[in-house]
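User: I've been trying to design a sequence by hand for this structure and keep getting stuck. Would you show me what you'd pick, starting by listing the structure so we're on the same page?

Assistant: Good idea, let's start from the same input. This is the structure you sent:
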């Protein structure tokens, strides 16, 4: 059955894939970029969603410049907090289900075990703080909304990590990459497929007020990443190997050797139990996803130089 889906942030690396896959599955898809609808404008968002009458809204829009956010809280909060709340409020009025994409940065990054939806939050960056505040804003007005946290998203295009490693492989004999930050790389294509599956599942239909209240705490926060964990160094080595280059050219270094304005979590691994419990298909191992991303990027070099924005 065809579902009318609005994808907000449809010009970004994730939103673009969500819109493409949803349309490919014969759903009625509207993809909105920031040029189409300014999420920080409450009235514009409300009018646009009311006119479109969607069954599901997938919000991929976000201020994701982690370092820049440290000195520009207002800009980050405008999109990540106010924008998220505006979308949720509009979905409430239009009785559309909302899937809101969030991040591993809501956690402090010091856990020895994977973070689950119920784990203690404690964002240490402005980006993480605004994303968590956005989660709270969403659930304050729309408790039934699904919040999907993910991590280390890549496509192999623009300036993402995989595309950057492919470029540096061509430009440098060796390079040093941080080897003391752990996470789960997530291929935007695989995550997008999961979001479309969630959007068209029985769990994502419009709910009555009574149903929304009763399900507010029943699995509305999910974690979705490709399976397995690695460091940025391990990911870089896999990119080199997939491109047919010698992975020994990638040398490990510590976070302390490359200080950044925003502190990076030592471990931001997200557990996948919530995703499996929702009867959604688990995302494949990250190494398989990297190989596909590199294969696609190498086959179409123009993809690697196209810049993308949320």
């Amino acid at each position: 059955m065809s579902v009318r889906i609005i994808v907000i942030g449809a010009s970004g690396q994730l939103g673009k894939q969500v819109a493409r896959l949803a349309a490919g599955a014969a759903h009625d898809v509207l993809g909105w970029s920031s040029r189409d609808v300014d999420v920080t404008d409450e009235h514009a968002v409300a009018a646009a969603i009311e006119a479109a009458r969607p069954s599901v809204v997938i919000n991929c829009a976000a201020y994701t410049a982690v370092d820049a956010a440290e000195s520009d809280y207002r800009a980050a909060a405008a999109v990540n907090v106010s924008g998220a709340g505006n979308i949720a409020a509009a979905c409430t009025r239009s009785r559309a289900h909302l899937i809101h994409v969030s991040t591993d940065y809501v956690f402090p990054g010091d856990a020895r075990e994977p973070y689950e939806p119920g784990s203690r939050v404690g964002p240490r960056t402005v980006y993480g703080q605004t994303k968590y505040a956005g989660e709270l804003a969403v659930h304050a007005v729309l408790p039934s909304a699904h919040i999907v946290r993910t991590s280390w998203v890549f496509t192999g295009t623009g300036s993402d990590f995989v595309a950057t490693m492919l470029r540096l492989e061509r430009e440098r004999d060796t390079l040093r990459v941080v080897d003391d930050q752990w996470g789960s790389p997530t291929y935007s294509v695989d995550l997008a497929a999961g979001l479309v599956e969630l959007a068209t599942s029985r769990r994502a239909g419009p709910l009555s007020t009574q149903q929304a209240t009763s399900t507010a705490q029943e699995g509305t926060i999910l974690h979705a990443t490709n399976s397995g964990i690695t460091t940025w160094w391990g990911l870089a080595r896999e990119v080199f190997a997939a491109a047919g280059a010698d992975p020994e050219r990638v040398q490990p270094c510590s976070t302390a050797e490359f200080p950044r304005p925003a502190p990076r979590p030592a471990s931001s691994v997200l557990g996948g139990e919530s995703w499996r419990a929702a009867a959604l298909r688990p995302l494949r191992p990250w190494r398989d996803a990297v190989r596909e991303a590199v294969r696609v990027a190498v086959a179409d070099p123009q993809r690697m130089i196209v810049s993308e924005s949320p």
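That's my pick for every position. To get oriented when you compare it with your attempt: The chain has one domain: 4-305. The domain at 4-305 is CATH 3.40.50.720 (Rossmann fold).
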